[in-house]
Input
Amino acid sequence: MKNLTLYIDIAFCVIVLPMMALLFPVERWFHYFQWYVVSVGVWFYAVYFTNRLVAVPALFKGGSARWWSIAFIALSIIVTYMLSDVQLYSPKPNHLDNGIVRLFPSVTHHQGAVLALFVIVETYSFAVGLLTEANRQRSRRRKLEAEREAAEIELYKAQIKPHFMFNTLNSIYGLFLTRNSRALESLEKFISMMRYIHTSSNRTAVPLSDEANYIKEFVDLQTLRVNEMTSVNLTVDISDPQLMVPPMLLITFVENCFKHGVSPVEKSDIIIYLKESNGKLVFTTSNKTFPVKRIGEHMGINNCRKRLKLLYPGRHHLSINSADGFYNVKLSINLKQS
Output
């Protein structure tokens, strides 16, 4: 937009204003009154750029700036009228020789030219100034919205970390309490996952392969604490491992499977499927539900919904349904912008 306004300024200064001026006998006036023609030309260019760069933006600011802008407009009208009122030669009689009555008998040709060109300069400068300022305001709003969305995304991501850590540590704690032989192995995997969280926390996107490995480690960790009543099936099929995705976007759905889909006495199956092909990611989970009310149990899912809405507006579809004792999630994301 900045280059566009520059081109408009050049077009006005080099083409529009000179062409409008040539509609009048400027060459004759310049031959006899060079100082006057140059002064009026300099004044018109000064009015144009002052209006476009100072007066019009000041109108949007309000307060004293707006009054200074109005004062300049009034001053420009007064100065232009004074320039047009300069008597270069005596006006012709009110009646022409052929008997036609002049509509404005007191206005000479050069006065009418100055006033007409001033109206053109004012109109053009205000139109360009308003267009420029409107686009500037629109760009500012977009920037503020982008900053707000980025802050919200970071907030949601930050909320997921302690939420996930609390649930995972609680599982490991249970393994140590029961003196499970796999407790130490669980702790090692947890440390590895914390290392990934730390390295990805300051990044807006990570390779899809890294995120998939993180999910595998999490599933391995959770599998250590379940008994033979729970079957876990994880499938990962990625065609482009270097495709970038937001970190820790899918883990909440995986965590939800183990939080609500595990029972020590009832048979249950957890199915997790992650596939990427031609830039389209499809992620599904399915598990039997064993209702257990937990504090803040919907926080992770709600955060994921909000992150998806901010990160992939119009480029994702998330469906979650719970029927016949099963909880199913299907998420599809177009990772490549068209």
The longest strand covers residues 268-277. Strands lie at 206-207, 230-238, 244-245, 268-277, 280-288, 316-323, 326-334. Residues 99-107 have pLDDT under 50 and may be disordered.
